[in-house]
């Protein structure tokens, strides 16, 4: 269950505990564990009494330079292929995610925590990205005459894609599901070009120039 208190979303979990325990995690996500018998009124009353403490400590942590990471709670930004949506978490018996206008509705079980929701959202991104790659990779292969042996999606920290020139296998970063489609086209072409040219020298650039004259613009979408 998620409760908003003065603009701060608190993740509330019922547990076998005696007292309510409010915590701010390292990523600035706020969690509250409560005894199983707690009522909504008790929980909300407790949170109201702590709202100043919460604000003060969150501000202090932000000033120390701690950057918030996604908590996958209501009100957060959600990106899919360059479009920005507002995430709304709704309690449900099973997980699903649907886009509805400018909202991304995430249905999640009542006992879900951040890790569960992150895992589900990543599986959603993977499915969406796979659909796009299955559609666009053959198109770029046909256009360039450069063919990969297979591809795989992987959550990567520092690279948008890689290509094994020997096996011709391509790896695509899962995070591309958040970026505009043009950014994915650029990465597909970039990795296919590596099948012929190992480095980023003139021969490589000429493949990009030939098939995507505005590749620099598309590349810049990845840096922002
Ligand atoms: Zn490269």
Care to describe what's here?
The structure is a single chain. Helix content is 40%, strand content 27%. A 4-stranded mixed beta sheet has the order 1-2-4-3. A 4-stranded mixed beta sheet has the order 5-6-8-7, with helices on one face. It starts with a strand and ends with a helix. Helix 2 (114-144) packs across helix 3, helix 3 (181-196) crosses helix 4 and helix 3 packs across helix 5. With 224 residues, the protein is an alpha/beta fold. It has helices spanning 40-63, 114-144, 181-196, 202-211, 215-223, and strands at 2-5, 8-15, 21-24, 30-35, 77-80, 83-91, 96-100, 103-108, 150-154, 161-164, 169-173. The chain has 5 helices and 11 strands; from the N terminus they run ββββαββββαβββααα. The model has no long low-confidence stretch (mean pLDDT 94). The longest helix has 31 residues, at 114-144. It is elongated, with a radius of gyration of 22 Å. The chain folds into 3 domains: 2-63, no CATH class; 77-121, no CATH class; 123-223, Metalloproteases ("zincins"), catalytic domain (Zincin-like). Zinc ion (ZN) binds at residues 190, 194, 200. Residues 190, 194, 200 line the site of zinc ion (ZN).
């Amino acid at each position: 269950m998620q409760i908003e208190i003065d603009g701060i979303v608190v993740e509330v979990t019922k547990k076998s505990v005696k007292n309510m325990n409010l915590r701010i995690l390292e990523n600035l996500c706020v969690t509250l564990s409560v005894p199983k018998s707690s009522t909504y009124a008790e929980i909300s009353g407790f949170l109201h009494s702590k709202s100043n403490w919460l604000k003060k400590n969150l501000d202090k942590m932000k000033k120390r330079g701690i950057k918030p990471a996604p908590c996958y709670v209501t009100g957060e930004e959600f990106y899919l292929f360059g479009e920005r949506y507002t995430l709304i978490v709704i309690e449900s018996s099973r997980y699903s995610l649907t886009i509805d206008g400018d909202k991304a509705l995430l249905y999640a079980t009542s006992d879900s925590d951040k890790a569960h929701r992150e895992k589900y959202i990543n599986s959603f991104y993977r499915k969406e990205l796979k659909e796009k790659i299955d559609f666009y990779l053959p198109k770029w292969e046909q256009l360039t005459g450069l063919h990969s042996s297979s591809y795989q999606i992987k959550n990567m920290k520092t690279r948008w894609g890689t290509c094994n020139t020997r096996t011709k296998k391509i790896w695509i970063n899962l995070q591309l599901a958040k970026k505009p489609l043009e950014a994915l086209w650029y990465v597909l072409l970039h990795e296919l070009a590596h099948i012929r040219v190992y480095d980023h020298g003139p021969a490589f650039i000429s493949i990009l120039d030939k098939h995507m004259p505005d590749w620099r613009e598309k590349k810049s979408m990845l840096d922002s």
